[in-house]
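Researcher: Re-running this chain for the archive, since the previous output was lost when a drive failed. Same request as before.
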Amino acid sequence: MRERLWIRRDVPPPYRARCPIEHTVGKQATIQRNPRRAAPAPRPPRAKNPSAQAPSRRLPNKDATTTARSTHWLTVLGAKHNNLKNLTVEIPLGRFVCVTGVSGSGKSSLVNDIIREALARDLNGAENVDPGRHERIDGLEHLDKVIDIDQSPIGRTPRSNPATYVKVFDAIRDLYARLPDAKVRGYKPGRFSFNVATDGKGGGRCEACQGNGSNRMEMELLADVWVTCSLCNGRRFSHETLQILYKGRSITDVLEMDVQEALAHFENVPAIALMLRTLHDVGLDYLKLGQSSTTLSGGEAQRIKLARELVKKATGRTLYILDEPTTGLHFADVKRLLAVLHGFVDSGNTVLVIEHNLDVVKTADWVIDLGPEGGDAGGKLVAAGTPEELTACEESHTGKALREVLDPDNCRLPIVNGRLEKDQEQTSIGNRKLAIGNPIRVIGARQHNLKDVSVDIPRGKMTVCSGPSGSGKSSFAIDTVYTEGQRRYVESLSSYARQFLGRLQPPKVDHVHGLSPAISIEQKNTSRSPRSTVGTVTEIYDYMRVLWTRIGKPHCPTCRIPVGTQTADEIVERILALGEGEKVMLLAPLLPVGDETFPQLLSRERANGYLRARIDGVVHSLDDGITLDDHRPHRVELVVDRVVVRRKHASRIADSVEQALTLGQGVMLTALGDGPASADPPDLRFARHCSCTRCGRDFDELTSHHFSFNTRMGWCEACEGLGTQQGASASAIVVHPTRSILDGAIQGWGEVRHESMLGRLVFALANYVGFDPHIPWNRLLDTQQLKILHGCGEEWIGMVQGERRIENGQDGGIGASSSGELPGTPFQSAMGNRQWAIRFQWRGFYPAIGRATRINPEYRTRLGGLVTEAPCEACAGGRLRPEPAAVHVGGATIHEIGLQPLSRALPWFTRLRLDPREKRIAGELLHEITSRLRFLVDVGLDYLTVHRSAATLSGGEAQRIQLASQIGTGLTGVLYVLDEPTIGLHPRDNRRLIEALRRLRDLGNTLLLVEHDREVIDAADHVLDFGPGAGAFGGRITAAASPAAIRSKRNSLTGKYLSNREAVAVPSNRRPVDDRILRTDLDRSVADDVSAGSRKPNQKVSDQCRMANGEWRMNDRPFPFSIPHSAFNILHWLTIHGARENNLQEIDVAFPLGRFTCVTGVSGSGKSSLVHEILYKALANRLHRAGLSPGGYDRITGMDHVDKVINVDQAPIGLTPTSNPATYTGMFDAIREVFAKLPLSKVRGYTANRFSFNRPGGRCEVCEGMGQRCIEMHFLPDVWIDCESCGAARYVPETLEVQFRGRSIADVLTMRVHEALALFENVPKVCRILQTLEDVGLGYLALGQAAPTLSGGEAQRVKLAAELAKPSTGKTLYILDEPTTGLHFDDLRKLLDVLHRLVDLGNTVVCIEHNLDVIKTADWVIDLGPEAGDEGGRIVATGPPEAIAGATESHTGKSLKPVLEIGPIRERPAYDAVKAARIVPHKKPIAGSVRRPSGSGRRFDPNRDSM
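Model: Regenerated structure tokens:
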């Protein structure tokens, strides 16, 4: 390690290695070592007075070439701290001493906790230190201080650097301050410090970066970025400071020098050269003097600290303590470090090092080895002596390791040329590849209805679980595989972390082998909070907040002009840019301080030497007697300087600017000329803090929290970040957003004539606000729409009439020029230079409606339907305060981009042009934003906006957002479990989703999907088909193979549908729809509207599908079947006129009544806006007085032919375990009546209430009829256990004694629907409801299954069954939104039979659906699009499915056409209500009829006695 030869000294017996084994040095005595390596001389008995007799050092043998110094000792007695065993340790002073030993042997307890703390207290006078337990320390009189040198940073800001740390920069500043130019200007050393502020402290640093040379940009989600200061370009100092040169180099140039260059530059300055040489000695020649401390490694920081100690004058009595100083150091760095440490010892100091590095230990003069083991087995002195002596101690683990280092010839390494390592590495890689190739093996899964399922899931592949509803797919994928993976992950965490996580119960499975970390992407909305948006859920908005904070350009919310901070140098450049020869006055605005009066203020400034002041716009000499009224406000501006603008006067202007800013507290004015103030040209206002140069409004520096609508710092105070308030709907006011105000955009105004009074008002308002009333409403700026809807406040607006004119306000008009128009507005007033005759205040529509509903009951009744959630009046729905809302990036605010569809936001961010500085700041931010946006677009969510509320997302949309987030993480080796990811997706978007899933798989992940979509199954690598039935008839895997192989499996129900052996047939007897009457009605309606002036013609009725001679033709080609003309009947139509909610483009949509109608289109095309927001809410208000707020439309015709509207959605049927399918459908009431009329119930006097688990009496009161009790677990999730009183039966034993056909009421609740059908076959009231549940594919459900455990699709079908059980009027409109969610092909066929049954009874079914098997069976299809968002909202095609298939612009038609061609085409059997009303008894009678106790012999008849 060290190249110099050290002479080995003989060691007297008392001070040989402290090892219980006797040994001799032998041949090692001839090894030449450093004379310090000789052990200290024997110590005589200690004197009572330690200072009376110092221990003497024994001299080395006579052959030594160097005389050893006498050695003193530092002795620690009775060390008992932590695991130290009453240890006494002697440390030779003036030597390099290593303390070593296994981890946990007590090294840090001895050195750091005892020696360092005690010496810091006794020698350095440190306070608040608590040394570890020990008796005493002897030998302190031989030391004067203790210094701890570690690898911690020398500073945490760019201002800290090697030059400042070793104090060489102080000497350099003193040198520059003594230069002639500096003395002439009066510069002190503080002028050349980047830590001294400019304001009043004599500093010369750049205030824009505060002397850092760069500004730190906090990036929150990313690492902070340091960006070069744009004003000083990283030079740290002001322009004037940099003019002081030494040998042609400025103070900034010196900081850019490396140590070697600086040594040559300052070679003639001994004080500086000496300090620089210490940095050279520790091997840091390459470092720059001003290099930021944050960029230094731990080793570099440590050597800089050593250099600082070298600068100090050595006393020879210092103890240096280092704790593992070689951590993270290369061999070469260790060599340099040892050279410095041995240099300290050569100067008489002591170095005490805790170290394991053998390269350090072997160079030590003395080694103290603690151990022999860690913890309780350690804390003892194993050996003490030279490194060579430790090698002979068998108990010393350190000695054993030193043998190989000190005697490498005897070292036998098991690794030769790295071959063994390579072989082991290859073996490891091979094992890893083998592990990756192994499948995930599930053995004995019995969760829910699974029947001991054992199966392999291919790793790194996409596997789809399919099968009938209730067959066990989700029980396997979600409740078994994912739950087990998640449980194992949670169990691997610490107990502290687990207390904050939900404890997962292990699923019923024997074992799962090879399980990867599991992530579930379910159909659950991520958040129901109104503050949660798509942007916050995906973290896109979080990155946008940081982006707008860091590179955004603040604007004044009032003046709409940029604002910002200005430094003195920038102000000087602005003044110099006024032009050569321009006369200016530099003014400092002043205000009285405290109780000071204006005369006292002027007298004070006159005493300070100033001659003039501008008071209320007039320049006065301070020597004149100026009289001011203290009771009135005055503008006092001190004239700091009057100067002619010339480049040679830059220094004078700079000094005056700094003086003016100091006097004006950071604000100054520049007046052109030297006369009184005038409006033209106005004064230039400059400020060091952020302010508006026009209105003078000051702004605080914005952080990313100001752009958050979830904190008080950022949210709008009026709506608290919600963006909405109670008010009129914008669509109810602006009924035609594609038209201009003059053309009838406003409800009730119609077309506005220019010469009318309303027309003059509109032109006056347009002139004041600054918009053209001829352009469409949707092309107006947000700020212009805001003023029209919310008003202009208390401002008066002038309106032209005749040739008279009244000025707006006192001084000739508010924002109006002599021509009556706003300066800079794009609209030229059509009224010319006429006189203002009328003034008015524009209050706005929202305030007017709100005031009218408050003060007038009549208006409250008439306008009550308009009141709904409207955009906030203060922030216009932006959610933010005015200051952050006005910040621009690329010319757009954060709210404007947040309202754009993702398909537009993505290219906007991609094309964003930034300068190099902004790219350095925003590069990573833009990457994160664009990547997340691209993933969302790839999964078919391009129609969403960043500001879309998360509460309005469907389950499928929320699931795809999670999927996009997982793709963005780039994780590999993960098991992803997805439940129905195609929910809500159009067939066109399915392909994009499949590509996203493949991309996730190709990253090296395993995908397990629960899915029924045909395209997804075909794209899978492996299919697990569950079945063969549902509930108790399922729970088995009927087939497991590739999609191609699954088609040939005879036992696979999914394979039958994939191979088209089973299929949902295209009906050959489709219900006819003759739209000729509709066409006539629509044409007449449009003509009436045009003639009345209330609307303009919009999209014509599609001519792609026509009926000729009783045959539907598409593009002049007949359909596969014909319908006789006699089959057509006169239909009634339900028509929505002028639908304009959200993205709907004022379309007219007609729904044929008594038919099955499908509304389809790509995601985001406007289906839900049309059906739910307009059709359902309007009908519910009209028919049921629901009090809902429908979306925007003109009118609806045909409502007289509908008597009831029912929305069958997927919302839960209940939120508690007491709600179940039996109670929701009303079936349980009839069942309780049956039990109440049984003979035993009559004898005991039981009523139907006795059999209710919601009422006291017959239920178990311990569990209150729930069958389970909730045990609160505090830090763990609550646990539900079976009630020990009733055994989960819900009822008391007396109630359970009453039985119907051998079954108690508790038995009935546990029955499946198909089982209950057999039990209650002779009870028509119960059987009818059970049959509807069976018909909708829910035969596997238990009657008492808790509502929270039902999926959305199951809840929807329960509601549908409840409606089917009710008597039909034949005039009901049923609305369903994607009822096929979660349905297998076979269940879908059952559901379609039920829906068509409703239509056969005369009702109307309107279904929003993407499933092609549903669309192809519909009577009428309405296809919206063609795209999503603003590019949608139009009618692409209407007609039967065959007509849609022929529409070239229809994405639905392109996917539907091959489905229709495949067929099969069959006749759909019509539903016979009379025949279905007959209950056919089961062939096999059920035993258990009950004999009356009276003994009459007549058996109980449930039909007669219960009905």
